[in-house]
User: Which sequence fits this backbone?
C-alpha cells in the first residue's frame, strides 16, 4: 500500500473516531449513572434513583409494562418499593457492551441480579437491561431502558 493511501485511511479513521468516539469523562459519567442506579435502588430512595432519568425517558419493565416520562417511571417504582420490592437488593451493574452511536447517544447492555423480591423468597433473579443514554445540555441521563428477566438462567 502506498503512503498516500495509508495516510488517507489514517485520516478517515481518525475523523470517524473523533466524531463517534467517547471521551473518558463520558464513559465515567455513564458508569456513575449505573452505580447510582444500584446504590439508590438499594436505599429504596426513588427520588434519588429517578435523578438518572431524563424527563422524557421511556421504561419497559421486565413484565412488558411501559412507562413514559420521568414522573410515571418514578411513580411506578415507588409503588413496588413500598410493597414486594421494599427489601430488594440490586447487584452491581456489569456492562456487557457500550457503543457510542453518536457523541450524545450511547447504547449499552448491562447485567445484574435482584434478590429480596417478597413474591419469590430466597430466589435471585438475573436481568439484562438495554439502556439508551443521551447527553442533553451537557448532562448524561437515561432516555430509555428495557429490562428483561432471564428465565433460562435460574
Assistant:
Amino acid at each position: 500500500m502506498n503512503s498516500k493511501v495509508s495516510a488517507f485511511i489514517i485520516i478517515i479513521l481518525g475523523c470517524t473516531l473523533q466524531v463517534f468516539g467517547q471521551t473518558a469523562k463520558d464513559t465515567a459519567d455513564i458508569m456513575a449513572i449505573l452505580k447510582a442506579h444500584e446504590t439508590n435502588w438499594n436505599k429504596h430512595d426513588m427520588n434519588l434513583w429517578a435523578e438518572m432519568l431524563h424527563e422524557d425517558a421511556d421504561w419497559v419493565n421486565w413484565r412488558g409494562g411501559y412507562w413514559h416520562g420521568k414522573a410515571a417511571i418514578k411513580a411506578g417504582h415507588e409503588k413496588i418499593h413500598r410493597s414486594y420490592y421494599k427489601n430488594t437488593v440490586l447487584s452491581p451493574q456489569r456492562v456487557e457492551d457500550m457503543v457510542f452511536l453518536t457523541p450524545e447517544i450511547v447504547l449499552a447492555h448491562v447485567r445484574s441480579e435482584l434478590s429480596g423480591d417478597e413474591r419469590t423468597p430466597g430466589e435471585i433473579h438475573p436481568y439484562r437491561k438495554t439502556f439508551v443514554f443521551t447527553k442533553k445540555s451537557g448532562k448524561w441521563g437515561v432516555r430509555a431502558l428495557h429490562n428483561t428477566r432471564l428465565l433460562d438462567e435460574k
About this structure: Helices lie at 3-20, 24-43, 46-49, 70-81.
